[in-house]
Each structure stands twice: as C-alpha cells, then as structure tokens.
C-alpha cells in the first residue's frame, strides 16, 4: 500500500491560494526500514564474536592452572577475532562498492588475469577439500572495469562454490562472449540452494543456513558485494540452482560500459 503525506501551505501574501502538497512517502519509508534493518543486523553480527571473545577471555582467566585449556581457548579466540576482522573488512568493501558511482579506477581488465587471480584466492581452500578448480572458455576477452572490484566479485563466487561443496567435487569457471557481453559462469556440484531462497541470497546478511555459513567463516555479505560490483559495471549477477545437485552463478559484464565511453575496448581475438 502507498503512504501519502499531505501538507498545506498558504501562498504569498495577497494571493488567495492555499497550496496542498501530496507527497508519496512509500519509497522513503522503505529506505528507512532497510537502513534500520541493516544497522540492527550489523550490531547483531558484531555482538556475536565480541561476546564469544569476552567469554573466552574469562575462561582463560579461570583456567590459570591448566595450560592445555588455555591453549585451546586461545585458539578459539584467534578464530573469533579472524571472524571479526573478516566481517569488518566485508563491511568496508560493501560500503566502498556501494559508494563508488561512477567507478573511480576504470581500466582494461583482461579476463584471463581476472579468472586466474580469483581462482588463486581460493586454491588453498579448494586443495584442502580436494576440489578441482577447472578454468575454461574464451579468456582472451577484455572488459573495462575496476580490476580489484572484479577480482573481489569473481573471487566471492568461487569462494562460495568451494565453501558450499562437498570434498572431491569440481568447480568450473567458464568465460564466453555473447553479443557485447562477457559472460563468466561459476558452476559447482555442491549443496544447491532451495528455490524459495533464490531471490533473497543477494540481500545483505541473508543466508540459507546461518550455522553453516558461520562455520565456514561466511558473513552473509559476499553476494550483496558481488551484486553491487556487477551493477556498478553495468552488468548483473544471476543464479540457477538445484538442491542437492549444484549451483551456477553467472556474472555478465558489458565490453563497453557507460563508465568507459572514452576508452576504446577491444577483444584481443581478431
Ligand atoms: P556467506 O558469507 O554466508 O557465504 P553470501 O552472501 O556469499 O554469504 O551468500 C549468501 C548465502 O547464499 C550463503 O549463506 C549460502 O547459504 C548461499 N550460497 C551462496 N553461494 C552458494 C553456493 N555456491 N552453493 C550453495 N549455497 C550458496
């Protein structure tokens, strides 16, 4: 339902007019609610690791004559502080990509470098689960964009594919050109995402399974960062998924975006 605010103003002295202003406040209300939710979510997400750290510090003090317990608690403190650092870093990243319009650091980004860097970020995690990272397709393409942001976006997709897949599966990163778009797909043979959650996973802090996400160090912010980066580049990110079978995330980036009209962008293929 729409919400209107009506106010009356008397026109300048001498005229016999009363101005009635009718303002549609629906969108302003929605933006307010989103902002309030975001602050509540951030506070909640920060409280969890901070609370755990404080309890662990108490436990260390109580265990002064048990060196093994102290080492165990210290290890958990390390995990909680890494989680806190990760959350703060992702909040900073999100705020950067949200506020970077138009993009400040646009240059030609070769997709073979982009894919290699994004895959490198996840190689260790993939190896520890014996997941094969396979790269293929037409990587000679070049898109205009912010190199660091694009590595962050694709890196987040590959990282999720590895995190939400069982051991000894395969993650495929494929690049192809379609019309004036570069299409990068990241496919996994992982858990998949239930149909009812598919439209919500790009929202800030939305997780299908909060416990699993936290266990893998997830913050629930990764996909909303990817969505903002894609939009900032004039592209988009979409998902297809089947529970128990796997997911495919598709990042579409224009060869020539409005942020790069002065740059002449060509693919290096003839
Ligand atoms: P997180 O930090 O929790 O991974 P994201 O914003 O990156 O947050 O993803 C949101 C949620 O979407 C995740 O918590 C997970 O439930 C789901 N998800 C994302 N990528 C995948 C994937 N490749 N396979 C299955 N589920 C996924």
From TrEMBL:
<dbReference type="GO" id="GO:0005886">
    <property type="term" value="C:plasma membrane"/>
</dbReference>
<keyword id="KW-0418">Kinase</keyword>
<keyword id="KW-0067">ATP-binding</keyword>
<keyword id="KW-0597">Phosphoprotein</keyword>
<keyword id="KW-0808">Transferase</keyword>
<keyword id="KW-1003">Cell membrane</keyword>
<dbReference type="GO" id="GO:0004721">
    <property type="term" value="F:phosphoprotein phosphatase activity"/>
</dbReference>
<protein>
    <recommendedName>
        <fullName>Sensor-like histidine kinase SenX3</fullName>
        <ecNumber>2.7.13.3</ecNumber>
    </recommendedName>
</protein>
<keyword id="KW-0472">Membrane</keyword>
<dbReference type="GO" id="GO:0016036">
    <property type="term" value="P:cellular response to phosphate starvation"/>
</dbReference>
<feature type="domain" description="Histidine kinase">
    <location>
        <begin position="41"/>
        <end position="257"/>
    </location>
</feature>
<dbReference type="GO" id="GO:0005524">
    <property type="term" value="F:ATP binding"/>
</dbReference>
<keyword id="KW-0902">Two-component regulatory system</keyword>
<keyword id="KW-0547">Nucleotide-binding</keyword>
<dbReference type="GO" id="GO:0000155">
    <property type="term" value="F:phosphorelay sensor kinase activity"/>
</dbReference>
């Amino acid at each position: 339902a729409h919400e209107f605010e009506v106010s009356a103003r008397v026109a300048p002295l001498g005229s016999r007019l009363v101005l009635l202003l009718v303002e549609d406040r629906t969108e302003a209300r929605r933006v307010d609610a989103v902002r309030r939710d975001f602050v509540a979510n951030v506070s909640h997400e920060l409280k969890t690791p901070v609370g755990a750290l404080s309890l662990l510090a108490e436990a260390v003090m109580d265990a002064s004559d048990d060196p093994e317990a102290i080492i165990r608690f210290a290890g958990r403190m390390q995990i909680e502080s890494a989680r806190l650092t990760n959350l703060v870093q992702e909040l900073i990243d999100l705020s950067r990509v949200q506020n970077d319009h138009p993009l400040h650091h646009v240059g030609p980004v070769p997709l073979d470098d982009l894919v290699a860097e994004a895959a490198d970020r996840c190689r260790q995690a993939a190896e520890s689960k014996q997941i094969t990272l396979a790269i293929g397709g037409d990587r000679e393409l070049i898109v205009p964009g912010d190199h660091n942001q694009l590595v962050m976006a694709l890196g987040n997709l590959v990282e999720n594919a590895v995190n939400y897949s069982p051991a000894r599966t395969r993650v495929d990163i494929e690049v192809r050109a379609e019309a004036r778009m570069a299409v990068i797909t990241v496919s996994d043979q992982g858990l998949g995402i239930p149909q009812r959650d598919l439209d919500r996973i790009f929202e800030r802090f939305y997780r299908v399974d909060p416990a699993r996400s936290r266990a893998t160090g997830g913050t629930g912010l990764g996909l909303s960062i990817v969505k903002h980066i894609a939009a900032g580049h004039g592209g988009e990110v979409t998902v297809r998924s089947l529970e128990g079978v796997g997911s495919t995330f598709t990042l579409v980036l224009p060869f020539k975006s409005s942020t790069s009209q002065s740059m002449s962008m060509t693919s290096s293929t003839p």
